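Lecture 7 notes. Example A: sequence first, then its structure tokens.
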Amino acid sequence: MSQKTINGKVCIWLQEYGWCEAKPAGEFKVGEFMRWNFGDCSKVVAIHSQTEKNVTFLLEWKTAQGIETGQRKFNKSRLVAIGASADY
């Protein structure tokens, strides 16, 4: 994963999307959005579990069939792109 600072903000490169502002996974709160490659977004619905080093989120995202949910585990220090409700 490529990372750099743009206009004073930490950004990561997303495939088929470009540079996007990011923050450590451990800083995401319920109700915030994560952005993925190709510009897709997921909403943080709940924090399922946490340890000293990891966090597991319950995420939801829209598909052609409706809204789907799933869990995703991250190292708390891993940079994750910040999404927006307008793109959800």
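Example B, a different protein, same format:
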Amino acid sequence: MHKRIRPADEEMGGIWYTLGFVVLWYSGLLSAVRLRGVSMELSIFLIAGLLPLVMAVQSIRKALFYRRKRKEAIQYGNASRGKIVGVMRQTVPYETSRHGTRYRKYYYLNVEVYDTLTGQGREIRSQGYTKPIHRYLRTPNVTVYIDQSGWNYYLEDFEWKTSRKEPDILPFREEFDESGGLSILIKVIFAFLLVMMLLNVFFSQGR
């Protein structure tokens, strides 16, 4: 069950779906251009395809920025051992591209950090994760890196479960897993159908 789960700010998983969609989109458009040449209709579709591409590039830049911040904090070397003692789930609204509102769940780990010199502990909160990361861990022990500002905490050295049968480190309330493979399959099918409909419109007009 070993896997790499990154905080939400460092994720790139959904970006690859967007890039794949852009590739399919422009593949269909270029096929239509070869058959019919460039028209006003095709020009509009060509420009429209730039929007998800720009958004994907921006998301990649954001993820790389926060990954670089993590690397800098690790290199700075201000580390302490910690123990996960709780988890907080928060539902945050966000605006979609169609100006609608959807909700995304984030999981924040509460970690007891122990001073390496005095042994005294204090509780800090991790960055937000879009996946219930605590369900994949076999022990609550982690390493906590603190950046030079003293405000940002980065968790490392997770000990991952090797089997789903291993007990959870924290009590867990059963909930629907929105990050399952079915959601990815639905996105792929949607992208495929959209491109096929687009090609059908272009080909039918060209006859």
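Note on Example B: The first strand starts at residue 79 and ends at 95. Strands lie at 79-95, 101-114, 121-125, 141-146, 153-156.
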